[in-house]
Structures are given as structure tokens and as C-alpha cells.
Amino acid sequence: MAKFTRVEWSHGMGLLEISSLPVLAQALRELEDLLIRDKEALTRSASASSQARKRGGASTKEPYNRTRYREYASDRKAAFADLYQFCFTLAKPPQARNIDLETAMALWSVLLAPRYSIINDLITFLPVKGTYKGANKDIWNMVHEFCRVVDPSLSNYEADGAWPSLLDDFVAWMKSKTDDGAEAVPAKEE
């Protein structure tokens, strides 16, 4: 996986005004809740006042600079898309066009599983199929798009659509499982 230089790390922590590990952990939890778990964004007054109560004072100073957090909260869809793309770039070895399938599945389980249950079935399918070894940028992007637009019941999946063969094979596998009565496809999430 990629590395951050000390200069990059220091620059990022300086911009966010993060000066301790507990504050970094808080910032990461808040971003995870916002972008991965799709929870409501913190409000300026609520986040500052809860921190003031924890410190036992009346100060409304936030624990770190939440300017970037608020930018992400204002367009969560774009912020998640940026995070998703960043993770592909971060995981891709230098000079390579793909990330290995094991890494892609691990990232999908972290990035997509909290929002889209269908990804868990895809992650189960890939080792069973055994023919796929990696995910290029097109597969990476199409898996996210598939999760976003295709109902977990697969009722709106269009076989003649422009999906990569990996996803066509997955849908055929899922339908064969339900046709055999082995396991029902999960109901749509809200």
C-alpha cells in the first residue's frame, strides 16, 4: 500500500489542527460516520458544545479544524466518490493498473458493505468463482455503480447493460442460488 511522507502527514495534521492521537481518532470516527456509515452530519453547535461538556468548560472551540468535514458534509455523495477513488489509488502498486482481488475485497468490505449489503454476496462469490485475480479501475468504479443502482434483489439488473463480465457472472451465480432454492437474495435496503 501507499505511504505518506512525514512532510505530507505533518502538513495534513497542521491543516486539520490535530495535535494528539485522541483528536485524530475522533476526526477519523466522525469522517467514518459521515462518509462510510452515512450518519447525519455534526452540527457546528452540537459538536462544539458536546466537546465543551466533555472538557467541563464553557468553551466552544472545536477539538480540530472541521472545515474539511463541513465541506464533505455539504456534498456527501461527491466526498464519498472522492474517498472511493483515493482508496483505489492508495492501494494500487506503483506502475500497476490493477489492485489484487484480496485487497479490493477488503476495501469493498470497509467502504461499501456498511451501505450496500449486496457487496457481501459479491465478496463471497469472487473466491468461489476463482477466475478473477484483480480489479482494474473500470471494475473498481463499476462495482460501486452496481451497488448504487442495482437493487439487492437484482430485479432491476439489465443483463444487456454495460456491466463488466465479473458482475454478469455474479448476477448469474446469485440467480442460480435463488433458482436452486439454496438461499434467497436479501431484500432491498432503505
TrEMBL record:
It comes from the Eukaryota. PROSITE patterns: DCUN1. One of its GO terms (molecular function) is ubiquitin-like protein binding. One of its GO terms (biological process) is protein neddylation. GO terms for cellular component: plasma membrane; ubiquitin ligase complex. It holds the Pfam family Cullin_binding. Residues 1-175 form the DCUN1 domain. Gene3D superfamilies: Cullin, PONY binding domain. Neddylation of cullins play an essential role in the regulation of SCF-type complexes activity. This is Defective in cullin neddylation protein.
